[in-house]
Known about the structure:
It is a single chain. By secondary structure, the protein is an alpha/beta fold. It has helices at residues 13-21, 67-72, 78-89; strands at residues 2-5, 8-10, 26-30, 32-35, 39-44, 47-61, 97-114. The strands form two sheets. Strands 2-5-6-7-3 form a five-stranded mixed sheet. A hairpin with a 2-residue loop joins strand 5 (39-44) and strand 6 (47-61).
Amino acid sequence: MVRELGPYLNFAKTYIEKVIEGSKHVTVRRGVVRPKFARVYLTCCGYIYAEAFIHRVHYVKLGEITSDIVHAEGFNSREELIQTLRNLYGDLGEGELVTVIHFTVLKKYENPISIRHG
Length: 118
């Protein structure tokens, strides 16, 4: 199954701070995700926290996640990352494809902006 990623790259509250502070510049998503835009808004809980540029997207099997991906994701170990992914997405097999999205924060908002229009 292929999913398209629109203008918002959403993060859980636990991870948005790591993104903003710069210790997380990769996100791993279940399945095949194809971004429609190179420039996206980084969001959490209905608010935009920053703008980012997606500079690389690639696909690997869960069992092929490297230490480079682990550290760019802001985790200390491969096991910690895989357990977190399984907590988020349920049972993930070692052979399942995941999308690795590499991004660079371009602009941080001093005060988050609500996504809701109107």
